[in-house]
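Request:
Um, any thoughts?
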Amino acid sequence: MTEAQKRFCDEYVIDFNGTRAYKAAYPNCKKDETAKAAASRLLTNVNVIQYIQEQKEELKEKINITKEQVINQIARIAFGDIRKLYNENGGLKNIQDLDDDAAAIVAGIETTEEFDGYGEDREQIGYTKKVKIASKDKALDMLGKYFGIFTEKVEINSDKPFEVNINVKGSK
């Protein structure tokens, strides 16, 4: 493997963006379309694939992430209950009061201070909080794919030589 290919791999495992990684490893490439096509070709190279896999495994060991932890976190998002974010009066709980399952479904919180008046005479009257929830659909899809719940079956029927009928059936 060349040094540029190794650099590509090292860049690629940062964010899995082939175009960006290729442009970082091969700075003479200026066009995104060219970088995208070249990155796609590189990602079919057996040595590149093996090196990337080794880098991913090394990183996984460094930060001590297990498959079970990842699946558990995805399951928390998939089956999280938004009602756990609120107190009995319907108000949003403080972030430090959320249990681990409730906190797992929160993708972000935006807080805006509300004021009345202008300039030095303005007075704070409250806050507006917007909570972004992680995508249940995406989490359920990931779990379904991992556990093989969603599959596509391909049936090939051939009654005559050189004539093939293909029926694709989706199942859940």
